[in-house]
Write a structure and sequence with these properties.
Blueprint lengths: L4 E10 L2 E6 L12 E2 L1 E4 L6 H13 L7 E7 L3 E9 L14 E5 L1 H6 L1 E4 L4 E4 L2 H13 L3
Amino acid sequence: MSHQAVVALAILHRDGKFLMQLRDNIPGIAHPGRWGFFGGHVEPDETPEQALRRELLEEIGYAPPIVSEFGVYASEAVVRHVFHGALTVDVSELVLYEGWDLGMLTPEDIRRGERYSKRAGEVRPLGSLHQQILLDFIEKGNF
């Protein structure tokens, strides 16, 4: 019997832009070298929201005061609990503890499916599912 992984992901927004992580370009990890959401695996003793807050603190040293569940995106392999919240600090106050880069992506970047990374020195693609989730979020206009 297959076991689905459960993850919690964050759509963090500020001034009409979305904070995303450029994942490390390492073979063997999910979506290497692509822009994606911050977040991670839900441990057995956690709710998805608790996992989200723990992962955000581990990855960028910040978790928003309030998050709301946007939706659940499930596949055969993974159940993704997607939350959204306002980024209440300037991006310069964040510390990137995990990943290659971070950036505030515009809706145009998201529709185009790519964004330049100063750290990588090149344009990098968005993870396709992460792009679709953000397009769904933008369409609903609740930010």
